[in-house]
């Protein structure tokens, strides 16, 4: 997901510290006291059932898409739950408690049969779209069809269903196959029952059903790639305004019924997202209470961080959280000379991870990484195949591998990074400096995060044409298991011609087999052991350079209510029930 987000600082958290926020006008002070450092990773901060007001978000870029079937950024998945109800979702909760999977559009978790190859869900009755029409199982089926079988139109989300559904007729997707029948392996025997028939057992299917691709889409209202401009809401909020690149405004969906929804509370009157706002400005506005949340959830910038770390009162308004996330450099195995494993190993040894960590903001932004799986995802096992003293790189070993690669005089390549993520650009700069010491000349190519996967780094043909051999990446688990983390970044079937997330273009039969067999195994211990083995094999292939186990440093607005930092969305605040105490 989760391709973006996102030892902790001292925790101060108790019932007495979970204060209800008040406006400046109410308490007469300029700086409301914080609930305590990391309070939102341990409980709900500023808990309130007050309704009304406007919750304001800001973003340094425009979202890649608001279409629940065509998105993959963690913050998009988080935010989309306000207007799109998947079959399953995550219950708002602090830290790992936020990983609890609960029914959303479905009445209960899926019922497996046929050894885990068939999964059946019952949809809640009484759920309506914003126009008052009833949500049916056929709408969920159509949502999965459009998001997974029209990759030439909607390419930004994952393709799990495309690979898993039993489809002997080679279904071409709803934009090419105009029949009402659709794919045969999703059955809708009545308006409230949906049955998924898979080509193999899939023990973690409930997690897959939590992806926004299962949120219903009415076929008659689908406009393909333009659906993002007018998503039909099945959630507690609907779109009032979509001004591309400028602003998004959500208002209460008057067709939403709390009786059909145990999770959403519909607290604010309005939700506003201001787009393409300077990152430093966002931080300033959040600290002042003029903006509630930086929606991308990647944390404060370097300048703000330095300011906050010096002030204990400001630190009391921060949350420093893990979120099943890795910062890494993908080595493109299809771009010469990285099609030679020895050249890839040279990069593994050359990179000064300590310098990268410093460039990204120090240990508060993440511990130095040596494995693909983060420390808080099942299957992680401590290992360091390319260990160097002090994690500062090893020029001698790097040059040895360059010689074995036939490139002892070095070569030129490019490294991509997202323009609006200064920490990522700074990390790429540190990598360039380290590579220079072993004779590899790399230049940085910057692209906007909103188009990073659709137009640039996620397009294999673009990378090859532009000699992009190294790609800066940040990845969080699609769900909190080794499979949920690994499949979309190392399995050969995940490689796509646009919206690609297997940026290394790694297609190793042994790795593919391990993942395929593991997910069908009902023995959790055996699955976990397989995920550890996949991690080891990816590192042996030198396809990924782990940099840091990412931690986010969020500044908590004292005027936002119901703030809770959740592992389900990379440590971001859960956006489902955020409210405000600001006066209107």
Please explain how this structure is put together.
The chain has 584 residues and is an alpha+beta fold. Helices cover 25% and strands 18% of the residues. It has 17 helices and 19 strands. The protein has helices at residues 24-27, 74-80, 137-148, 160-164, 205-208, 279-288, 302-309, 312-315, 341-350, 353-359, 395-404, 422-436, 452-456, 460-465, 482-490, 509-519, 524-540, and strands at residues 54-58, 88-90, 101-103, 111-113, 118-122, 186-190, 193-197, 237-243, 247-252, 270-274, 293-294, 318-331, 366-368, 411-418, 440-447, 468-476, 544-555, 560-561, 579-580. It has a six-stranded mixed sheet with strand order 13-17-12-16-14-15. Strands 8-9-10-1-11 form a five-stranded mixed sheet, covered by helices on one side. A four-stranded antiparallel sheet has the order 4-5-7-6, covered by helices on one side. Strand 14 (411-418), helix 12 and strand 15 (440-447) form a beta-alpha-beta unit. Helix 16 runs antiparallel to helix 17. The longest helix has 17 residues, at 524-540. The chain is globular. The relative contact order is 0.19. Residues 3-32 have low confidence and may be disordered.
Topology, pairings included?
Blueprint (H helix, E strand, L loop, with lengths): L23 H4 L26 E5 L15 H7 L7 E3 L10 E3 L7 E3 L4 E5 L14 H12 L11 H5 L21 E5 L2 E5 L7 H4 L28 E7 L3 E6 L17 E5 L4 H10 L4 E2 L7 H8 L2 H4 L2 E14 L9 H10 L2 H7 L6 E3 L26 H10 L6 E8 L3 H15 L3 E8 L4 H5 L3 H6 L2 E9 L5 H9 L18 H11 L4 H17 L3 E12 L4 E2 L17 E2 L4
Parallel strand pairs: 1-10, 1-11, 14-15, 14-16
Antiparallel strand pairs: 2-3, 4-5, 5-7, 6-7, 8-9, 9-10, 12-16, 12-17, 13-17, 18-19
Helix pairs in contact: 9-11, 10-12, 15-16, 15-17, 16-17
């Amino acid at each position: 997901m989760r391709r973006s987000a996102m030892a902790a600082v001292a925790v101060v958290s108790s019932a007495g510290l979970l204060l209800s926020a008040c406006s400046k006008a109410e308490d007469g002070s300029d700086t409301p006291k914080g609930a305590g450092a990391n309070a939102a990773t341990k409980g709900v901060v500023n808990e309130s059932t007050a309704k009304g007001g406007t919750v304001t978000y800001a973003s340094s870029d425009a979202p890649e898409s608001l279409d629940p079937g065509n998105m993959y950024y963690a913050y998009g998945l988080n935010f989309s739950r306000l207007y799109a109800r998947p079959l399953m979702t995550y219950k708002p909760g602090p830290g790992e408690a936020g990983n609890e999977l609960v029914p959303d559009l479905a009445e209960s978790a899926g019922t497996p049969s046929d050894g885990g190859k068939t999964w059946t869900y019952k949809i809640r009755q009484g759920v309506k779209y914003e126009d008052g029409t009833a949500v049916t199982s056929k709408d969920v089926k159509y949502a999965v069809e459009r998001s997974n079988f029209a990759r030439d139109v909607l390419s930004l989300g994952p393709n799990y269903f495309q690979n898993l559904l039993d489809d002997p007729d080679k279904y071409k997707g709803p934009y090419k196959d105009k029949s009402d029948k659709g794919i045969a392996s999703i059955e809708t025997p009545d308006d409230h029952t949906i049955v998924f028939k898979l080509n193999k057992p899939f023990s973690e299917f409930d997690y897959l059903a939590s992806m926004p691709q299962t949120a219903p889409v009415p076929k008659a209202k689908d406009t393909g790639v333009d659906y993002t401009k007018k998503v039909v809401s099945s959630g507690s909020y609907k779109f009032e305004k979509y001004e591309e690149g400028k602003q998004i405004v959500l208002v209460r969906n008057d067709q939403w019924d709390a009786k059909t929804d145990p999770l959403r509370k519909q607290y604010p009157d309005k939700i506003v997202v201001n787009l393409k706002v300077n990152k430093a400005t966002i931080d300033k506005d959040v600290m002042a209470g003029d903006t509630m949340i930086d929606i991308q959830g990647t944390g404060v910038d370097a300048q703000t961080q330095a300011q906050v770390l010096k002030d204990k009162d400001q630190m009391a308004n921060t949350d420093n959280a893990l979120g099943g996330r890795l910062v890494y450099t993908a080595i493109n195995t299809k771009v010469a000379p990285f099609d030679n494993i020895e050249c890839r190993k040279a990069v593994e040894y050359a990179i000064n991870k300590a310098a990268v960590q410093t460039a990204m903001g120090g240990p508060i932004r993440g511990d130095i990484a040596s494995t693909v799986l983060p420390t808080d995802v099942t299957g992680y096992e401590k290992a360091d195949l390319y260990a160097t003293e002090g994690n500062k790189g090893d020029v001698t070993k790097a040059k040895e591998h360059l010689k074995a690669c036939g490139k002892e005089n070095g070569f030129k390549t490019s490294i991509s990074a997202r323009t609006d993520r200064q920490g990522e650009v700074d990390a790429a700069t540190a990598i360039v400096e380290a590579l220079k010491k072993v004779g590899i000349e790399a230049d940085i190519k910057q692209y906007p995060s909103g188009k990073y996967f659709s137009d640039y780094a996620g397009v294999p043909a673009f990378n090859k044409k532009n000699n992009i051999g190294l790609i800066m990446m940040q990845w969080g688990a699609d769900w909190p298991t080794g499979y949920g983390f690994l499949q979309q970044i190392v399995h050969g079937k995940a490689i796509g011609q646009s919206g690609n997330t297997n940026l290394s273009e790694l297609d190793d039969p042994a790795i593919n087999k391990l993942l395929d067999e593991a997910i069908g195994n009902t023995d959790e211990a055996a699955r976990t052991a397989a995920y550890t083995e996949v991690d080891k094999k990816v590192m042996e292939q030198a396809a990924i350079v782990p940099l840091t186990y990412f931690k986010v440093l969020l500044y908590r607005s004292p005027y936002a209510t119901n703030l809770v930092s959740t592992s389900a969305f990379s440590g971001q605040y859960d956006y489902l029930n955020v409210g405000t105490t600001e006066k209107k």
